[in-house]
Amino acid sequence: MDHSARGDSELALALRGGDHDAFEELVRRHQGRVYAVAYRLTGNREDALDVTQDAFLKAYRKIGQWRPIGGFLPWLLRLARNQAIDHLRRRERRRHEPLDETMPSQGDANAAMIAPMATDAAVRAREIDERVRKALVRLSPSQSTVFILRHYEGLALAEIADELGCTVGSVKVHLFRAIKKLRDELEDLRGP
User: pLDDT grade, residue 110 (50/70/90)?
Assistant: First the structure.
């Protein structure tokens, strides 16, 4: 059966009924978006790949808990967000990375060519990115999903509403609250 013409809810119900090809179509359809959410929260390609895989594995195992009322994609993105948060917590507990993993090795002849201002800007950008990721984790699942879809994925408000199965007004409220919380969390980063 051609699964590409079926909607997410149909595919999720088919998976619940034992159709494993339906799961493959859901993965094909949404792996990019799940990866994008995971990457925005972890800030690391390898971690994002792990989180993406874990989110789909969890979706496969917990498909019986999914309810068609809210749509499949919002449920999947919540799973991805939760997996990313769990992953970040585990990473913090076993933190053993060097302080600055961007520093070149001693044998790198080009290391001497790095301008101090460019290095300072890169370090500052990395610090800001890390702070934004940590702040995103503190938002509610709906707020972080809407914020990521709008500001990182570039979706229009109506597209987000369609994806999440809610009204544009609801999207606006979640987005407004997300931005307000992020501003509060990142207040110290604002210049004079």
Answer: very low
